[in-house]
């Protein structure tokens, strides 16, 4: 963890400090009965807080921020990637649990795992959906065989083997 000086911490939080100061001042003026509280509130939120934010805010226009080492990072992109990883991890965990419980055969597990890995990103999912167009709620592969029907047949074969 890096240590920062008081000035660096002030600069990083200047807009919040200005907003808190403006709020405290107009609220105190209101409670103490001064007539200028409304004018100060409007002036504070329309002029003071935005000017302080413009002067001290170091975020670039494209949403990327430069840290002390000069490395740019996109916070929103990192957040989206983290959410995608969490969703993929949760889906993979559910798939593993179903396989461990015996709900899926080796072939079903491998097929579903391949499908999960093929559709890991939105672009991959769109490409997969294009390859496997949906006709009447049934996913039809490019070879024309309905996917659900194939899974049902495999499940019937497993039941016969038991």
Give the mean pLDDT: 76
Distance between the termini: 59 Å
What integer value in Å does the Rg equal?
A: 29 Å
- Shape type: rod-shaped
Query: Could you tell me the number of beta strands?
Result: 4
Strand content: 5-15%
Strand order of the largest sheet: 1-2
- Low-confidence stretches at least 5 residues in length (pLDDT < 50)? none
Number of helices: 7
Number of domains: 3
**N-to-C SSE string, H for helix and E for strand:** HHHEEHHHEEH
- Major sheet, described briefly? 2 strands, antiparallel
Helical proportion, percent range: 55-70%
Coarse structural class: mainly alpha
Pfam families: SHOCT (PF09851)
Biased composition (Basic and acidic residues): 71-82, 142-162
InterPro entries: SHOCT
Biased composition (Acidic residues): 60-70
Descriptive account of the structure:
The structure is a single chain. By secondary structure, the protein is mostly helical. It folds into three domains: 6-57; 61-121; 132-162. It has seven helices and four strands; from the N terminus they run αααββαααββα. The protein has a two-stranded antiparallel ribbon. β1 and β2 form a beta hairpin. α2 (14-32) packs antiparallel against α3. The protein is rod-shaped, with a radius of gyration of 29 Å.
Brief digest:
The chain is mainly alpha-helical and 162 residues long. The protein has 7 helices and 4 strands; from the N terminus they run αααββαααββα.
